[in-house]
Amino acid sequence: MAHSHSVLSFQSFTTQTLSADEIQLIESSVAQFGAPLLMLDCDSIRRQYHALNDALPNVTLHFALKPLPHPVVVRTLLEEGANFDLATSGEVELAAQEGVPAERTIHTHPIKRDADIRDALAYGCRVFVVDNLNELAKFKPYRDEVELLVRLSFRNAEAFADLSKKFGCSPEQALTIIETAQAWNIHIKGLSFHVGSQTIHPQKYVDAIRTCKEVMEQVVERGLPALSTLDIGGGFPVTYTRQVMPIEQFCVPINEALNELPETVQVLAEPGRFIVAQAMMSVASVMGQAEREGQMWYYLDDGIYGSFSGLMFDDAQYPLVTLKQDDELFPSVLAGPTCDSIDVIAEDIMLPRLENGDLVVGCMMGAYTSATATDFNFFKRAQTIVFNEHMVNSERLIG
Ligand SMILES: *Cc1c(COP(=O)(O)O)cnc(C)c1O
């Protein structure tokens, strides 16, 4: 309990502190399981799911498995009443294995193989996404079983991942797809979009919703069957080292835009990052150290090829904390364990003098971290240990 910790002075760093309870839990977990670890808090997942659900009262939330496809996450959200967004046969398998009723799922990958469609249909998932005529044609054999969403593209240079560069079509192309589907007797249920992961400004959603409303009106003007569904995708932001708007405030203009849609339109969202980012902390230990060009280099047992893969794939800047506390700080580098020179987590940061075995904690490590980790150089991925899976202990581990 006497343990304290120091916060790293990152460039644009927000204060991140660990409670005495958290520190004790981290130390006892490493004593029991060894390092590196990922500590997953199911209470955080429940809390984030309900926060978004409350902020979007008329929207059905489908958790996108992609950022953290862990069975415990699926189980926890299933119990809370969530729906799910699947994109691959592996994700279909995970949902099926955890007993997710297929009616509570949609399949949102815009580009699929016939086998992917068949796997999802065999499970019972009926809703799929298309953004071009080539993809639409793949559904001719399944026209009696499927309902499709047409994905529109809205570019977003500010997001961590601009998901409208690779996927989505223009409003005119959407109308062509909808007309063609009518001719081919394939049911188009509605429209979808993804404004980009970690979207900072809600106006991106507002603009996209307004454009979709116009497309829906044009569908009716052309004498096509009215669309019943709008899927506003994922992208809801969380605070890493840069503070973002609280979610209630973020969703106010989105709800206003949604209120302009006809009442018959059912609205869905596909949040990923927002639900899970806060739920994991990473814990790595110092394997060795050297002084190089006036800086202390600490080599950790987790790095860019492991839990910190998001530094490469996701643009995230994770708040880092050392458990050791000292007033005297030195210019330091945190590096990963592999023999590759790009395997560096943070440079030019001020740290206390660390010993081998000292622990470094990464916060906000739930989304796009272990999901994209590799075993490069045969360094094993961090083991994930789960807390608060059953709500016997309502104490919150990660605040
Ligand atoms: C990745 C992805 C999501 C989740 O996005 P977040 O930014 O993590 O909320 C949702 N839908 C689709 C189709 C995706 O590819």
Characterization of the model:
The N terminus and C terminus are likely disordered. The chain is elongated, with a radius of gyration of 23 Å. It is an alpha/beta fold. The relative contact order is 0.18. The protein folds into two domains: 147 residues, Lyase, Ornithine Decarboxylase, Chain A, domain 1; 203 residues, Alanine racemase (TIM Barrel). The protein starts with 5 loop residues before the first strand and ends in a 12-residue tail after the last strand. It is built from twelve helices and 17 strands. Strand 4, helix 4 and strand 5 form a beta-alpha-beta unit. Helix 2 packs parallel to helix 10, helix 4 packs parallel to helix 5 and helix 8 crosses helix 9. Strands 1, 2, 11, 12, 13, 14, 15, 16 and 17 form a nine-stranded mixed beta sheet that branches. An eight-stranded parallel beta sheet has the order 5-4-3-10-9-8-7-6. The site of pyridoxal-5'-phosphate has 18 residues, from helix 11.
